User: Fold these one by one.
Assistant:
Number 1:
Amino acid sequence: MTQLDLAFVRDQFPAFAEPSLAGFAHFENAGGSFACRQAIDTLDRFYRQSKVQPYYVFEPSAGGGRQMDRARERLAAWLNIRTEELYLGPSTSQNTYVLAQAFRRHLQRGDEVIVTNQDHEANIGAWSRLQDEGIVVRTWQVDGSGELRAADLAALLGPRTRVVAFTHCSNIVGSIHPVRELTDLVHRAGAWAVVDGVSYCPHGLPDVAALGADIYLFSLYKVYGPHLGAMFVRASLAAELPSQAHFFKGDTLDGRFTPAGADHAQVAAVNGVIDYLEAVAARHGYANQPVPVQAAAVKELFRNSEIERLQPLLDFLGKQAGVRLIGSTRAAARAPTVAFTVQGKSSADIASRLAQRNIGVGAGNFYAYRLIQALGIDPTDGVVRASFVHYTSPQEVDRLVEALATVLA
Ligand SMILES: Cc1ncc(COP(=O)(O)O)c(C=O)c1O
């Protein structure tokens, strides 16, 4: 099996050559990743050359529009969906909010929506507010270890269930859910599946068509790119939902759920993310292969490299007295988003002590407030979270483990 060329990968990220970041080990990637050079360059170029209102006939404007269209086409191809099924909005929280507004007009009193208490609030709160319209909101609850079980979802599905919103991978527990199995279950009950892919996508963009979700969301600022939320909405569902765009914008799918639009330069900069992914594919022998082949290969390269780095960290934390590791101890079952608490120590304090060693981890509830409460953890202090992606080196993981050994002692 081909190994990820880590030196090549790190060369694509200016942060690793940035003097002010020398010696800094980034372990808060689940909050926001470093941006790849290609995305930064595209953003810079757009602001210099095309920073006028796009889609007019004069060249700087038309050229800007072409770059934006191209970005959507290329990202859609990488996700294996149709371009008109891809929406780019300011963030995932904004995207779910607008979608819920559309469902508010579409659902009937007494219809049921299922949310989980494992998700980030972005995929719970917007749906839960539909209660105000007489929609019944049910919660698919985590078990004592914070995991979601398919049998518990099956027990909640009923003839009035219309929407089930769940996560591909929690930003705290890290387990990767069998999305296809779950979307099949949801569809058998006659409901739509809304899947939050924000915590999953930084570890390799999925074949969204294969997952079977009706709506799939993720945030590009965690996938080495600009601060945007990407959203797939199945064309047949989008056509049923009332458009949230200006009334005169016609009946096209495009723009239906992004009334605010997104920053034009950032939309164009999505090209940079795809340039990066293509460069990784080419470097590992997949140049000129069909896009799905490149996408699958890059995802596998990323995942394999992450799993190799992750297992030693899990093994270390699993052996520490007083440490409560959230989620699986098996790297292959989860994303490298590792949350834990330490008996008798505050999470904020642990994060501060690591920061003194130039290691960046997060502490808190990460807006998975309901999950943290369900786990019996104080949501103010929350958990310590160390999260990484494919560009993280084995040396950085060693440094984290060594620093933790001192801080937790
Ligand atoms: C799992 C998950 N879902 C949703 C969101 C919200 O994304 P955004 O910041 O784009 O609104 C986040 C943000 O951290 C997240 O981690």
Number 2:
Amino acid sequence: MPEGDTIFRTARNIGRALIGKVLTGFYSTYPRLTRFNDDTPLTGQTVDQVEARGKWMLMHFSGGGILASHLLMNGRWHIYRHGERWQLPRFQMRIVIENAQYQAVGFRVPVAEMHTTRTLERDLRIPRPENDLLSADFDAAAALERLVSRGGDTIADALLDQSVLAGVGNVFKSEICFVNGLNPFRSVGTLTCDEAAQTVRSAQRLLRANVLEDSGDLIVTYRGQQRRTTHNSDPTASLWVYGRHGEPCRRCGEAIRRRIQGDDARVTFWCPRCQPMPDGCDVDG
Ligand SMILES: [Zn+2]
């Protein structure tokens, strides 16, 4: 599933292609979006802003409509110049938004809804900017309070909860636990104040490091970007533990372990030596 950093980069890229330019076309396979467009044509409007909110992307149109989309597991947004060959088959297209130069194409986007400022405000699934690790308005103190309030949850599950910290997905979950030396199966209630605060800080730092400006003002059509949490420039050494089951820990050499965790059965990776379960914690980690 795309995590907050991926959505952030996608929104930035789409913004570069669409913001401030008059829209020349809008197409969708979703009847509700088509109906909205029939009633309030998007053609002729401009895109004022494209923003990421956790794993949601919001596209603000000059007529007041806000398109909120969520990619879940398989959705993708691509940008193409007119005439450029699409990288995914046409039948997977759900939404096309175009101006004279570019097309933003949503493939297999499973959730796409038109909002107004008011309905957006009321929609509790879409994170507020102050909860979003990548937002300039992120409020770390409030996030720490929310994290600490999840005392009975495991650290890994609390990190995935988008109402605690918006933007962390399964890869960052394991990486954040590793860089803090925290066993992912500990309950949040066993964290010291320092450990909890450090967890929030490192979550913000790791996500931000993955959205650093790398392409200037150029508009790039979509290409996968290597996510990195280590300081190693070798692309095969970009993550500490995620996806490395059985491989040696980059710090201590111990074999990385892997286990299915939580109600959603998400996979967790950790180093048993660098991330020990503290004395008194009776969970088998
Ligand atoms: Zn280790």
